[in-house]
Amino acid sequence: VFDAEGRITHFVSIGEDVTERVRTQEALGRHERYLAARNRILLAILQAFDLDERLNHVLDAVLEATGVEMGGIYLVEGSRVVLWVWRGVSDEFRAHVQAFPVSEAPAAIWEAQVIRERLSETGRFADFAKREGIQVVASVPLVLPTGEWLGTLMVGSRQYEALAEEDVRMLWDISRQVALAIWHAQLLRAAEERLRRLITLREIDRAIIQKQSLLEILRTVLEGAPAEMGADAVAVSLFDETRTRLQVFCMRFPNGRVIEEPAFEMAESLLQWFVGRQEPVIIYEVGQDPRLQMHWEAIRNWRLFSYLGVPMIVQGETVGILHLFTTTPRVFSDEDVAFFQTLAGQAAIAIQNVALIDKLRLAYEDLKRAQEALVQQERLLALGQMASGIAHDVNNALVPILGYAELLGRHGDEQVQVQAQRIAEAAADITRVVERLRAFYSPRAPEETLEMVDLNKAVLQVVALTRPRWYDMPQREGVTIECETDLAEDLPPTAGVGAEVREALINLVFNAVDAILAKGEARGRIVVRTRWQGEWAVVEVTDTGVGMDEETRRRAVEPFFTTKGERGSGLGLAMVYGTMRRHDGELELESQLGQGTTARLIFPIRSVKPRIEVVEDAPLTSARILLIDDDPRVRQILRSMLQEMGHQVTEAEGGAQGLALFEEALRRDEAYDLVLTDLGMPSVTGAEVVWRVKAISPSTPVIVLTGWGQESKPPKADAALGKPVTWRELKAILARFLS
Hints:
Layout: H1 19-46, H2 51-66, E1 70-77, E2 80-87, H3 91-97, E3 99-101, H4 107-110, E4 113-116, H5 127-132, E5 136-143, E6 149-157, H6 165-209, H7 214-224, E7 233-239, E8 246-252, E9 258-259, E10 264-266, H8 268-277, E11 281-283, E12 292-294, H9 296-302, E13 307-314, E14 317-325, H10 334-411, H11 414-438, E15 451-453, H12 455-465, H13 467-476, E16 480-486, E17 494-496, H14 498-519, E18 523-533, E19 536-543, H15 550-555, H16 572-582, E20 586-592, E21 596-604, E22 624-628, H17 632-644, E23 648-652, H18 655-667, E24 674-678, H19 686-696, E25 702-706, E26 719-722, H20 727-738
Parallel strand pairs: 16-18, 22-23, 22-24, 24-25, 25-26
Antiparallel strand pairs: 1-2, 1-6, 2-3, 4-5, 5-6, 7-8, 7-14, 8-9, 10-12, 11-13, 13-14, 15-17, 18-19, 19-21, 20-21
């Protein structure tokens, strides 16, 4: 205070307490910072609609507002709670906290709490958190107004004093808005993903339906699986028919390259999970899981990280596995799994359909072959019946020719004997031709004489025998043909008729020569091979000739079908076919037009039952024989032969007369010692004669004469003798009953 002269006389001080004002200003500042932080977070929520972007914006805004350096947001995904986005933590730490089953989640995730613990203290933080340097963590559950828990916002710091009370309160205050924002983003993403997945599934399904082969379907699946849903690389494994062995059928790598070879292996425990439990398998880091071992080259080149395996199930059965790999760490959501389960199901159904179509196609082809074989069999049966009728008549005509020739040979001079022998040989040749014609497509009779045939020896004989045909004759036309053999060592012999086997091989060699000449090239090659295939012996004749188209190959064994014009009879391969049927074997033909043909004879390996040989000059007891035949020429020569052997012969012109004579002799107690009857007679047949004689006198031997072959013997007949009858055969068969 100043006086009149301007001098200070005293001081007056006025005091005011501003503590409350400072506090108010500080509170106002904190509130402004709170509102600013909150606004930043809320603005971050509005910056993006995509779930991942929104979560990242929210987390960045929270870390900025609270001033801490680490944090993350967990989201509930079905039965798991998953760390969806994170900041400031190491891979090691994240591996420990990446995901938990909801029922096993730590309290720090689903409870609102703040945990502080210095690094020097123990008890609250796990060792891996200590190694990370964490000293404070705050967790804020994100709960909807309905009470549904969506996840948790977690922030932390390596600074013990971080996260003031206001920071934590601010996080709790905004948690509901954050929860709603996340929920809306989840709904939007779910709708978009459902639409996208439906479109993707529809496109893949449409593409699969259009495919007809297994490989095409698998390629469609590999190419159609979307990378944005976790399919950077895709593979498909399929089970074999036994459902016990799994093989990676094909795989698409991240660059789009597809390989059709194994790329990884699965442990048995993982395989059993797919097959037994039929549930998906998720592996967060492939390189650290021993159940799925990738080839190191694939891991190094493509850095495949996370894995999802989905069983491919059809009608409750696992037919394969769909494998999905990512190049970055990924947590597959329940919707991801559901999508790929649907895709795997579609692929499984398509694969099953292809398998069914293939089976149907094979069944149709088998049916078609069976129908063709049936038609062929009917055609050949008709031909055989016709041939059998011809053979009967020819054989009847040959009986007197061969019989008289043999009688002349027994009594004439040397010149007559020579001429008679020539007649007998000619008749025998005709007999063999007729026999082959008669037995063209007939099965071999059990009692026919078989021998052990050395196929290797037969091949060498045929190659030598046909040399003029495959070497000399083509040389004159300027064509060189090489005929080679490739014979299997230790090939066992098989039961058969050597002459027929050699004749079949000769036919095949001749056909090979004709095919090479028809091709018009200067050189050709024939290879005859033998090999042992289980219980079968195989002979192959391969040529480099003109080959056959499919239609020609199919008709090649038809009688009278030929592509050689007037030079061919059309009976060569038909005869070979008949020979193989009589040997219980098969004839296979493989051919490609312009490339050549392979004819394959397949024989069953079997042995010959030992037979009791009958000595031709064994002494015979003179017997009373009843001879029944409707052909007088046959009766005449047989009577002469029987009388020459010392027997008494009574002739009958037919079955009725023969039976009358037989019954009359029984009444006079002068029964015949043996009945020799023709089989094919009018009115009363030889079969009826056999039945009647055996009914009257079961002990009387009855031998039938037949021009249809010995296999036509009636059931009750004691033996059958094929026409024409030779002296040796007649004497041998009589010796069986009269010696």
